[in-house]
Give the backbone structure.
Amino acid sequence: MKPSDELLAPHQVHLWHAFTPQQDEALNALQLGLLTPDERTRMARFHFERDQHRYLITRALVRTVLSRYAPIAPADWTFEPGPHGRPYITNPHLLAQQLRFNLSHTDGLVVLAVTTGREVGIDTESTARTAPLEVADRFFSRQEAQALRALPAAEQAHRFWELWTFKESYIKARGLGLSLPLSKFSLQLDGDARVDIGFDEGLDDSPARWRFWQLRPDANHLVALCLEASTTELVEFSCKAVQPLLSEDTLAFELTRRPRAFQG
Ligand SMILES: CC(C)(COP(=O)(O)OP(=O)(O)OC[C@H]1O[C@@H](n2cnc3c(N)ncnc32)[C@H](O)[C@@H]1OP(=O)(O)O)[C@@H](O)C(=O)NCCC(=O)NCCS
């Protein structure tokens, strides 16, 4: 078995991006070989080829990337969903048990965040889509909806995607999905590229536990990251673009928002 070759320290976050171009049949077949029978059945249930393709790349990405961090072959990773659908690694190897991962897919991109020993949530959206601004009025916090509507009309769509991705990254880091009421916590995004979170009383959490960053891996996608980290900790990012089983490159990226209290 190939030894694990990626070192991951607790202060590091590794982000793996798979842009999802059409691939040739030979590569599809190789990636398909990594999937379990159950995953192949799920893939076949997608009606559209586009969704099958994204599912294939997602599973191949998770399996090949996780194998960089622990001596487990890509096809041998096992997962169980938690009570709110988040997949957890069940391989007993100590290195596997320490890993945390979260992924998100949207048109043209699958992104996977890997950390060790601390929670992480990630969300990506294609900003080429029309922003459903009315969703903010119905589901976001009052402060978020008001701040959004106070912006010049031309800036509202971008702010909507920013809020949406940050909110998703937080509920995904908690692993609780939409059982967390979206209106009970607020992201404060201001003009100086900083980001803070605040909680309503009754939502059992503290702003000091979480930090947020935003990246733009390309012109059409926003990525929001929520990491369990105190404001004094140094955090380091590494970003790669991969096509599973084919290629891997360092990805130049722009950090477009950071936590307020620390320049990490
Ligand atoms: C499932 C949910 C956690 C994310 O869904 P999503 O934004 O549609 O999808 P994403 O592509 O970003 O993330 C899906 C991945 O997150 C992971 N995931 C699933 N449930 C999760 C949970 N409870 N917590 C963390 N991660 C979860 C899975 O790996 C999943 O991918 P997979 O099924 O291919 O393994 C949940 O938040 C949801 O249903 N959201 C619906 C969208 C919405 O209404 N958002 C409100 C915007 S503020």
